[in-house]
Amino acid sequence: MAAKIIQFPGTARTTRPGSACASEGTPLDLSIECEAWGQPLIFPENEAAHPDYANAVIKDIADYRKIQPVDYRTGRRMMMHIDVCRRLAAEKKGELPIVAFVFGPLGTLSMLRGQQDMYMDLYDAPDEVKRATWSVAETLADWDNVQVIEGDILKTDIPALVSQHFAGLTPIACANLPYNITSPALAALIEAGCFASITVMIQREAALRLCARPGTADYGAFSVYCQYHTTPELLFEVPPDCFLPAPKVTSAVVRMVPRPAPAEADDPDHFFRVVKASFALRRKTLANSLAAGLGMPREEIAQAIQRCSLPAGIRGERLSIPQFAQLSRALRGLL
């Protein structure tokens, strides 16, 4: 995934909403707005929306010259996004996002051409692709308080980038994440350890998992991971009719505020090894799941569970973070 990193250093000046944000200074992404260039989209029932590559806007190298800067005011979809953005700004109670990771010009072009064809075009006609890339990026040209940096969110050294560009500021990450990389992108933002808060729009089911409590169907290993590092809060849902055309899924905006690691989890690597193993076999008891995941005798695990005053037949999804930490310590001496 190509990414833009949008910087708002100091001022809350309005950027052109076609590329970034509403008047409150909250970033909005351009990730699926290939529709603004006339690209038909497909909205599958159980997948993220994607372009209709059989009807691509860029059919050959000559078509790259068709790509010109767009005006957000001509697109109903973008105006709907801006309305969501204003609601997000209101929920953030005046906080000013400093950083946003969103789809960049190459990502947008790949949605107008198709990834494989664009990859070959970069070899055959790099100047044409580059010119079109600048046409996409031109939507930010009028705003001197915006900086665009090309990169891949999953490969970027985020702490180094923040240190270089935001020294002395309070970085806040805000993004409309592609649904197919929600978990690794969130992990990258969390593990960067340099954001005062992380606010994302993701698929509702993923948002429910992040905020799930022990004993619920949505509670899992990634719930524990996120709640170990942050305090997540589901701010509001974004129904399908907020988009045009309406997708088959509902989105939700979640804010995650970093918190100190739980003191009782004194060995994070071992803690998360136990957590991962506890959810490896969700239909099995905790003892059976840990035995399979850790490669330990079930009898020894059962004794450790008993020492933690947990029921013998308990399942992993019922344990809180403090209980996982207690169990992790009990098992550490047995491995």
Describe this structure in words.
This protein is of the alpha/beta class and 335 residues long. The chain has 2 domains: 3-258, 3-Layer(aba) Sandwich (Rossmann fold); 268-332, Helicase, Ruva Protein, domain 3 (Orthogonal Bundle), CATH 1.10.8. The protein has 12 helices and 8 strands. The chain has helices spanning 76-91, 105-113, 115-124, 126-137, 158-165, 182-192, 204-211, 221-229, 268-278, 286-294, 298-307, 321-332, and strands spanning 3-7, 41-42, 50-51, 99-103, 173-176, 198-203, 230-238, 251-258. The strands form 2 sheets. A 6-stranded mixed β-sheet has the order 1-4-5-6-8-7, sandwiched between helices. A two-stranded antiparallel ribbon has the order 2-3. A hairpin with a 7-residue loop joins strand 2 and strand 3 (50-51). Helix 3 packs across helix 4 and helix 9 packs across helix 12 (321-332). The longest helix has 16 residues, at 76-91. The two termini are 39 Å apart.
Which features would summarize this protein structure in a list?
single chain; 335 residues; alpha/beta; Rossmann fold; Helicase, Ruva Protein, domain 3; 2 domains; six-stranded mixed beta sheet; two-stranded antiparallel sheet; elongated
